[in-house]
Amino acid sequence: MLVDSHCHLNFPDFKDDLPAVLRRAQLNGIGTLLTINTRLSEFQDIHAIAEAHSHIYCTAGVHPHDAQDYASPELAQQLKDLAQFPKVVGLGETGLDYYYNNSPSAEQIDSFETHLAVGGELDLPIVVHTRNADEDTLAAMDKYPNAKGVFHCFSGGREMAKAGLDRGYLISFSGIITFKKAEELRDVVKYVPLDKILVETDAPFLAPIPHRGKRNEPAFTLHTAEIVAELKGVPLKEVAEQTTNNFFNLFKKASRPI
Ligand SMILES: [Zn+2]
Ligand SMILES: [Zn+2]
Predict the structure, then answer these.
(1) For the chain, how far is it from start to end, CA to CA, in angstroms?
(2) Which-ligand-closest: CA of 100?
(3) What angle do CA 111, 164, 11 make, to 5 degrees?
(4) Mean pLDDT computed over 180-193
(5) Structural domains for the chain
(6) Residue ranges near ligand 2 (ion) with Cβ within 5 Å
(7) pLDDT value at position 155?
(8) What one-character-per-residue DSSP string does 217-242 give?
(9) pLDDT the model gives residue 73
């Protein structure tokens, strides 16, 4: 079994055929899915999906793109309230995105720190999105050493991966590692120990080869796991078992399907 540790099942891309998408995931051995919140206004939608399926969990959080829409004192309380739902197993996705800078950096930092503070307090893992913001991401994490989590859709360098590992965070790889030009990132996959790796799709974005350019979906987690296995020189089964263990060790509120 594999876990898609990061997808967005409430996005309009899946509006017409979510049941078929979930069936294909099951057929490809994706036994657990984590659907990720990006705006609190969409929480109800993703939570409803998680509530309707025993093998789907969700997070609560605000994407760095949307940080400016949620002020921090209220945000902390909102996150704490939403974290009470049994199906909410983590916070995020949060972090810093200085590539797009859709929200001013000060507000991104404020929002990220709020997630880290609440996650540390409630012992809930943080799903971190970081792009062109290595230094500030680590500085925020260092202010909240109790918080733990995962660098999702990792596309950084080896040094950033090491910095995350040193702080007890896991590294999640997406379909990007299947892309032809991702040679450097594949070196990072070789570097990160298998017991620190998660796999994800970030669906509907970033479909892996051989589906590149099309809509991504959780079933394609398999392609990413296959590349991890190839790079590590181990059977796919081992990657599946280890990354699944890693997921449930981090997201402790989630339970394995029986
Ligand atoms: Zn992201
Ligand atoms: Zn995402």
Answers:
(1) 11
(2) 1
(3) 50
(4) 97
(5) 2-250 (3.20.20.140)
(6) 202
(7) 96
(8) -GGGHHHHHHHHHHHHTS-HHHHHHH
(9) 86
- The amino acid that residue 42 corresponds to is E
Residue-level pLDDT at 158: 98
Query: How many CB atoms are closer than 10 A to CB 76?
Result: 16
Q: Average the pLDDT over 45-50 and give the result.
A: 98
> Is-contact 47 87, C-beta < 8 A?
yes
What sign has the CA pseudo-torsion 22, 27, 31, 34? negative
Amino acid occupying residue 112? F
User: 230 alpha carbon to ligand 2 midpoint, in Å?
Assistant: 25
Separation of 107 CA from ligand 2 center, angstroms?
Answer: 19
Query: What count of Cα atoms within 13 Å lies in the side-chain half-sphere of residue 242?
Result: 17
Half-sphere exposure in the Cβ direction for 23 (13 Å, CA) = 4
pLDDT at 72: 80
Helix (H, G, I), strand (E, B), or coil: what is residue 109?
Answer: helix
- The pLDDT > 90 percentage for the chain reads 97
- Give the C-alpha separation, 20 to 190, whole Å: 34
Answer yes or no: are the C-beta atoms of 152 and 125 closer than 8 Å.
no
Whether the upstream peptide bond of residue 204 has omega within 30° of 0, thus cis, is yes
